Amino acid sequence: MNRVPQHVAIIMDGNGRWAMKQKHERIFGHNNAITAVRHAVEAAVELGVRYLTLYTFSTENWNRPQAEVDGLMELLIKAVNDETKTLMENNVRLMTIGDIQRIPERSRKVLQGCIDKTSANSGTTLILALSYSARWEMAEAIKQICREGLNPESVDEETLRGYLATRDYPDPDLLIRTGGELRISNFLLWQMAYTELYFIDLLWPDFRHEDFYTAVVDFQGRQRRFGKTEAQVEGK
């Protein structure tokens, strides 16, 4: 328990493929993904993970068929309304990162209501990456640096980090991606410079507590060197 990752990020992939396997429309998979989210959040709480970031809706997802996008926005409202009580019971604080102004106003209001209601919770922080992409995030950071007229010579890694959407959170220790794909998909590119990556074939709607635990155990079996030698890490 003293080697539990402080921050876990998840790319929740495979909803559409899961639905098609069940001979349903893609939105059926997104609906059933909520159960997997609940399992992931509860597992994070049980293990004492301080931050859990879920790649919920990317900026590229706006290019999906309008009916699917509309269905996802309605599902977001339902999920937040249904799960707020559970978040409160588990002492979970909800936050978001991304271009939230692109989210429909009704969805934003529901989200903000849950953020406000859970703001005093002191357990796990659940961060929904909504209308988010890492390239968008970095472009926005650079724009703000330019607006403020910073001296280019004064801009270093810590300066840029202070303008990112995740400036208030530590970088992820562990990334879990379901669905069998071996890519990062424009998610937290700056922050994942030293993140341990864990890929599984399981489609997201089938993800459960034990899958989260297995990923953490795999993480615990790795040696994180951050550029140092093995001997340095082991103190030899």
Notable traits:
alpha/beta; six-stranded parallel β-sheet; globular; Undecaprenyl pyrophosphate synthetase
Please render the helix and strand layout as text.
Blueprint: E1 7-11, H1 15-21, H2 26-47, E2 51-58, H3 66-89, E3 93-97, H4 105-118, E4 125-132, H5 134-147, H6 157-161, E5 174-177, E6 196-199, H7 209-220, H8 230-234
Parallel strand pairs: 1-2, 1-5, 2-4, 3-4, 5-6
Helix pairs in contact: 1-2, 2-3, 2-7, 3-4
From the coordinates shown, what is the CATH architecture?
3-Layer(aba) Sandwich
Largest sheet: 6 strands, parallel
Number of domain modules: 1
CATH superfamily: Decaprenyl diphosphate synthase-like
Which shape, going by the Cα principal axes? globular
Total strands: 6
* Count of alpha and pi helical runs: 8
Which structural class fits the helix and strand makeup? alpha/beta
User: Do you know the CATH topology?
Assistant: Undecaprenyl pyrophosphate synthetase
Q: Enumerate the spans where pLDDT stays under 50 for 5 or more consecutive residues.
A: none
Integer average pLDDT: 94
- N/C terminus separation: 25 Å
Q: Write the H/E string, N to C.
A: EHHEHEHEHHEEHH
